[in-house]
Each structure stands twice: as C-alpha cells, then as structure tokens.
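F.,

This is the one I mentioned.
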C-alpha cells in the first residue's frame, strides 16, 4: 500500500509539472492572445453602474497562391462580416489585417552596407495583431498618409547599422527608398526557430506591392458573445469549414481558442496534420510557429492524460479490491459496530448505577 501511495503522489507531481509546461508552451506566442488584449468595453451593455466586457475572437484565414485575396476582396470580406454582425444584432467594433507572401530583397543603406531580408507587405492593423517588442521608433498604422515606412527586425538593424536605435534612417529595398519607422524584436524561442522564420525581416505597407499579387493571410477581431458565433460568421463570409483544407485552398483557424483543452483534445486525431506546411496554403512564419506550439501542447496534454491513468487505475483497483472483499469488510465493520454499541451500553449502565448509588 505504501508503494501505491508513493507512485500516486509521484504521478500528481508529474501532472503538476506537465501543467506548468503546458502553460509555458501556450503562452510563448503573444499574438495568439490578441482577443484577450483587445477586449471591448461595450458601453451599450450595463449592469447597474458596471460595464460588461464583451468577449472577442481572433480568426485567421489563410489562402493558397491560387486563391490570393485582393485588397477589394479583403474590404468586401470585412464588410460581409460587419453586415452579418449587424443582422445578428451584435454590437461592437471589428478590426482586421492582411499579409502578402514574403518577398526576397536586398536592403541597402546610404553607406552601401547590405543585408538580405524577407520583405513582408502588410495592411490593416497588423501590429495590433502582432505586437512585437519595439526597440526604437513606432509602428506604422493603417491611417498612415505616407507608405514609405518600414519596420525592420533587430537582426536587419544590426546587420545594416550595427545598432537597433535606427528609427528615421533611410534604406533602399527592391529599388524603393524607405524610412525606418521602427525596429522590433521577434521572440527568440524554439517555436519561431522551427517556423522557417527568415533571418532578417522588413515589414512594409502593402500599397508598395499592390501589383505583385494578393494577400495570403487575413485576420479579424470581432465580437464573440456566444462561443463559436464569431467563427460561424467568418466561416459563412469566407465559405469554408474551419480547420480543414478546402477545394478552394483556404483554411480557417480560431486563434483565440487554439490552446483551450477541448481544442487540443480534438486535435489529437489530426496531430500529423498540424505541422508546419510550406506548400498549398501559404502560412506566414508566425502561424508556422503557432502550429509547432500546437503540436507541442497536444503532446504534453497526451502526457498529462497518460500519467492521469495511474491514479485512475489505482482507484479502480481499490474499488475492485473492496468489492472482492466486501463480505470480510462488512463483517469487520459490523463486528466493530456491535462492539462499540455493547461498550456504549455498558458505559450507560455503569453511569446509571453510579447515579443510583449516589442518591442512596
């Protein structure tokens, strides 16, 4: 029995450690929690003097090279989602962003220092969805009047200028001059390392490459008053099933739900499909990083349930043993009960005799 107790205590300690590992994995990528950060204080819904927080969902749509989204199509999708929310009487703001595939480029400084970079044209509120740490400067916003701003990562900054404090400096990429708006740090962890992340990155506004093709990523934040309602609205607007390859080469993910236990449990049968994809649908490096973390979180969850079998099996064993020896156990219980009753009866009689003696 002592060995069983030690084994079960060890199992619960292991489960605790695995839960901590699961938490670390699922919180390593801040952009997967955009919906939590964004939130929304809906001024139209009140409880007394207390505002209620309307939950939001972060939905991503990824396209293959044959199904790229034009800017007009992106705006049309945005409008379709807004109309669906209005038709369902769901109040709240929506915001979105879109990304084109990486474009190889050579960045050149005025002093002719060069660096090979992956140039990524983006539109909408990209840095709300992907709030990489700013080392200097500012993000460019969707309201920017000019389109000559560039956000480079610290690897590009150090290669070109030997510093990360280079906001305002001029660089040339693919024959166009850009002013560095800001320098960012992309997290250096195992998931990004396994994501095919480029060695050096420059984000620019999509208007500079509107003729090069369309967007292969569309992300949207929208109200989600009932679990799954936001995903249903976007699925209807896009016309595909979530988390499944479609003939049209489009995949939907609900980022805000990807790390909950139910989603991870549902992903176990599809574990071999949730790896990095480099063909068909075009995933940006940050989604590939999330796919790696998806798999890691699922494996840890499998480990938690495997270890959980130890106390479950122990309970089943003890119940079986109790059932098997139920007659002996019941006889022992009845015997102890009868002895206790007899002892109590004797004590009562003795007390009564003592009281009678004292009265006399």
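My design for it:
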């Amino acid at each position: 029995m002592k060995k069983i107790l030690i084994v079960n205590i060890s199992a619960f300690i292991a489960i605790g450690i695995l839960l901590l590992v699961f938490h670390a994995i699922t919180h390593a990528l801040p952009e997967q929690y955009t919906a939590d950060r964004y939130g929304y204080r809906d001024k139209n819904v009140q409880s007394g003097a207390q505002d209620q927080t309307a939950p939001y969902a972060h939905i991503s749509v990824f396209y293959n090279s044959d199904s790229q989204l034009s800017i007009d199509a992106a705006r049309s999708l945005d409008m379709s989602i807004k109309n669906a929310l209005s038709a369902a009487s769901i109040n709240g703001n929506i915001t979105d962003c879109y990304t084109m595939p990486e474009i190889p480029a050579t960045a050149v400084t005025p002093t002719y220092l060069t660096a090979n970079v992956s140039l990524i044209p983006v539109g909408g509120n990209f840095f709300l969805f992907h709030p990489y740490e700013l080392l200097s400067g500012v993000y460019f916003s969707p309201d920017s009047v000019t389109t000559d701003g560039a956000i480079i990562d610290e690897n590009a900054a150090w290669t070109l200028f030997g510093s990360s404090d280079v906001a305002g400096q001029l660089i040339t990429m693919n024959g166009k001059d850009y002013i560095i708006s800001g320098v960012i740090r992309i997290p250096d962890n195992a998931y990004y390392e396994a994501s095919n992340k480029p060695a050096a990155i420059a984000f620019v506004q999509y208007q500079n490459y509107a003729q090069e093709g369309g967007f292969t990523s569309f992300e949207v934040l929208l109200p989600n008053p009932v679990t799954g309602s936001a995903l249903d609205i976007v699925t209807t607007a896009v016309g595909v099933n979530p988390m499944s390859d479609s003939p049209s080469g489009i995949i939907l993910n609900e980022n805000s739900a990807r790390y909950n236990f139910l989603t991870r449990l549902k992903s176990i049968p599809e574990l071999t499909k949730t790896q990095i994809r480099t063909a068909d649908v075009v995933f940006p490096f940050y989604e590939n990083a999330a796919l790696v973390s998806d798999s890691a979180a699922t494996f840890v969850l499998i480990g938690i349930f495997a270890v959980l079998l130890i106390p479950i099996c122990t309970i089943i064993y003890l119940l079986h043993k109790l059932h098997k020896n139920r007659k002996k156990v019941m006889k022992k219980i009845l015997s102890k009960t009868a002895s206790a009753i007899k002892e109590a009866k004797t004590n009562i009689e003795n007390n009564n005799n003592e009281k009678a003696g004292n009265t006399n």
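Residues 103-209 form one domain.

Talk soon.
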